[in-house]
Amino acid sequence: MATKRVLESRDALRLLVPGPLALVTTMYRDQPNVMTAGWLLPLSFDPVLIGVAIHPGRLTHEFATKSEVFALNIPNVDLISAVHACGMTSGREGDKWDATGLTPAEAVEIEAPLVAECVAHIECGLMDRRMWGDHDLFVGRVLAVQADDEAFQGSWQIEEDAGRLLHHLGADRYAGLGKPYRMLAEGEEEGDRR
Question: Is there a domain that residue 192 lies in?
Fold first, then answer.
């Protein structure tokens, strides 16, 4: 068995990653913004609630607080450059949409753009915001959801290029999921579909 080393408590955050990244989009006073987020979590089935952690210094924090809506746009590995750029710069420094070549698309339920190039979109109304340490947890009630059929069919189709989601490993390191594994039910044989 491999030797394990003691890590800093902060390293626990990286151990729970990789979860899929999202491009969080907001709009306030006709100014759209997009930011990369990696700290996302499902919170409830009924009502359907999703959380995203956002630092108070981010423009996205300000816009989501004031507009009370935001969208989580799920990119695949094709968008690695744009995702990295959106995570490294602030909307206060310039237009990230122009800088990255991302295309704003109209949302179904909220007044904030979606990222057209992403394979899925989750539109949320802000239900709650709480400070936890140095980030605020934005709790969004899901208002509309859409996904590319090639990327998502009840679960992510990571065997398909469209379904290879982007995950952040830390700093400038990213990964896309590869081979899926499926547990067989008792009595089920390989190749059976349920």
Answer: no
For the chain, the domain total comes to: 1
Tokens read off for 136: 């605020």
- From residue 1, how far is each of 4, 6, 39 by CA, in Å? 9, 16, 31
| Residue 5 CA, distance from chain mean position | 30
- How far, in Å, are 14, 153, 179, 188, 193 from residue 184 at the CA level? 30, 19, 16, 6, 10
From residue 37, alpha-carbon distances to 82, 188, 191 in Å are 13, 39, 37
- Whether 161 is in a domain gets the answer yes
Please state the pTM of the whole predicted model.
Answer: 0.89
CA 178 to CA 132: how far, in whole Å?
33
Residue 79: give its domain's CATH number: 2.30.110.10
d(CA 108, CA 7): 44
State pLDDT tens for residues 82-125.
Answer: 999 999 999 999 999 999 999 999 999 999 999 999 999 999 99
Residue numbers of the domain that contains 103: 11-176
Tell me the β-bridge partners of 25: 34, 71
Domain membership flag for residue 108: yes
Residue 73 lies in a domain: yes
Burial grade of 36 (CB within 10 A; 0-12, 13-18, 19 or more): buried
